[in-house]
Amino acid sequence: MSQNQGWTIFKPQLRLSLELLLMIAIALGVLLRIIHLSSRELWYDEVLSLLLSTSHKLAYQTPDGDKPVVLAQYTALLNLPVESGINSVITTLRNLLHGLLGGEPHPPLFFLSQHLWLRFFGNTEAAMRSLNALFSIAAIGSGYCLGRVVLGHQGGLLLSALLAVNPFYLFQSLNVRMYAPLVFWGILSAWSLLNLIFNSHKSKLLWNILLIISIASGLLTFYLYVYWVITLAVLVIYLERKNWLQHSLRLGAGVLLTLPWGVWGTLKQLRNADLQRFGEAKQQGAAWLIHLQDVVNNLGIHLVLGDWITSLPPISSVIAGCVISLLLVVLSINLWQNGEQQNLGVGLILGIFPLLLALVIDIITKKFTLGFGWGRTMIMILPGCLLLLALGLEKGIPVQWRTITVTGLLLLYLTIGIGDYSLRQRSMFHTIADIIAQEPNTPTLITMNSQAWGHVMRLAYYIPPAFPVNLLAEKPATLGKSLEKLLKNEAETYTRIIWLDSDDPVWSRLKTEAEKSAANQQVQAALNSRYKLINNQELSGTMTSDSFSIKLYKSSV
Questions:
Q1: How far apart are CA 33 and CA 412, in angstroms?
Q2: Are strands 548-555 and 444-448 parallel, antiparallel or unpaired?
């Protein structure tokens, strides 16, 4: 009797301590998002998001390789246009949409929301990232609600905590792209659907509205969200097949809301889409092996490594993916043995099914979308995978091991996430701006071996427009000749030249080291004839497109 009474007292205390731990983890996840809003420079795709959101994408022109351009002309494209009335506002929105149709492969909702955010808060790093941070915080709250439907209060806290400190979602929460909102729409839709299935007698109108809105918003945020819509349909068949028609009408209503954009915009985007980039895998080997590796990589990146993958060798995501896959298999077996078959099915459908669906479609179409973008194209699997993980931790392991196991996993996530933002900085263009600021009134030429708009626009974003800076941006193979021609006629114009040599010129990469060496020698020869090398340093960030060699030259004539 005394033993049972002691256990009765001990159990609530254990639960309270675990709940407190989970709430602390949630608070830390929110805090990390706030303090890191501006801790890094914008990366390549983020500045493109800004260009599209300001509606100036159509006004952007690739720099003329033979002639330098005033860098401040590009800076103006990163600000909202000057407007004088409602007609000019409508023109701005029209230009934004037409900019998306001109080659951007994503729907308009993310860029429209960023555009609205810019109008209120401006285009600083913190202001731009704050919208996605808010979406991610809303996703963390919705994650609790989703987890509570499946697992109860403590399970909801566990799912929310895992989402809050997950390294991959932490990065995407501070990334000015469409992936943080996508997770929110995915969680909201799953939560709404499960409420309609399990609690259909309560607030049915509200859950219908939320489900329809989240389906439409997800599809208007990212086209591959269609995988998630199919996943929800499978969930209906699994849980409530008898009412499949009602649920199909709800899902269909969400799809129908996107029809105006689908008819007008999506068809035009498909005609301009660069689908060939998904036709080749970066890895070498048999196609079936590459597809399998893509699946494992996604699990390793989403559930372990996060954005660290951009600095680690590819084998690291394979190892992490194999380890986490083994863990999920063990937890799934335990859940089955513990009588949690229905919940296990929900977790597998929401987490693993969309990944397998994408795999099948890749195999049929002979594409490699799963391997694109360091896992971000399949971010819709993250809530389901974390739900499956939460299920295993809550119901698949003995209670005496639960707290220590959850603590270990949360500490692992926090260590990876905090280490990512503490050990990997991105401040290359601040360094360039600081060099120019040492002599702010000196006419300066930046010569760069890349015409990639992400590189050009980052220069324009971080170098103040008041500085007299011109840019000569050319493909690596022809930069030396263009620079030599320019200096013959205009050498006296520039008393200072900064040679910015990108390790990854994106659309104009040279194939061999011999080609790179020959191109650099041409630039070196053109500069040495009239200028003296003052400083040379290497700049790096969190990915290959952040790596530059910067050389400062001053006139020797």
A1: 17
A2: unpaired
Assign 3-class secondary structure to 356-386.
HHHHHHHHHHCCCHHHCHHHHHHHHHHHHHH
Tokens of 197: 């299935």
Torsion over CA: 524, 465, 429, 100 (sign): negative
Q: Give the amino acid at 458.
A: R
Q: What is the CA radius of gyration of the chain?
A: 26
CA distance 120 to 79: 12
Residue 273 has phi, psi (to 5 degrees) of -70, 145
Please state, in angstroms and rounded to a whole number, the distance separating the CA atoms of residues 71 and 463: 8
List the structure tokens of 455: 């590189």
pTM of the entire structure? 0.93
Sign of CA dihedral 146, 148, 149, 150: positive
Domains and CATH numbers, the chain: 89-274+285-423 (no CATH), 428-555 (3.40.50)
- Residue 343's CB is within 10 A of a number of other CB atoms, namely 20
Contact 497, 450 (CB under 8 A): no
Task: Tell me which residue of 300, 328, 302, 329 sits closest to 316, measured CA to CA.
Answer: 300
How many angstroms separate the CA atoms of 108 and 225, rounded?
A: 14
Q: Which one-letter amino acid corresponds to residue 140? A: I
Which among 550, 450, 447, 548 is positioned nearest to 508, based on CA atoms?
A: 450
Q: Which tokens belong to 313?
A: 């060798």
CA 70/CA 481 separation, integer angstroms: 20
Tell me the C-alpha to C-alpha distance, in Å, between residue 130 and each of 112, 120, 172.
15, 12, 12
Residue 550 main-chain phi, psi, to 5 deg = -115, 130
User: Crossing angle, helix 226-239 and helix 341-351, to 10 degrees?
Assistant: 170
Residue in the structure block whose two tokens are 């996605």 = 132
pLDDT in tens, the chain (557 residues): 333 444 344 444 445 589 999 999 999 999 999 999 999 999 999 999 999 999 999 999 999 877 899 999 999 999 999 888 899 999 999 999 999 998 788 999 999 999 999 999 999 999 999 999 999 999 999 999 999 999 999 999 999 999 999 999 999 999 999 999 999 999 999 999 999 999 866 778 999 999 999 999 999 999 999 999 999 999 999 999 999 999 999 999 999 999 999 999 888 888 776 666 666 666 666 888 999 999 999 999 999 999 999 999 989 999 999 999 999 999 999 999 999 999 999 999 999 999 999 999 999 998 888 988 899 999 999 999 999 999 999 999 988 899 999 999 999 999 999 999 999 999 999 999 999 999 999 999 999 999 999 999 999 999 999 999 999 999 999 999 999 999 988 878 899 999 999 999 988 888 899 999 999 999 999 999 889 999 999 999 999 999 999 999 998 76
| Count of helices and strands (H, E) across the chain | 24, 6
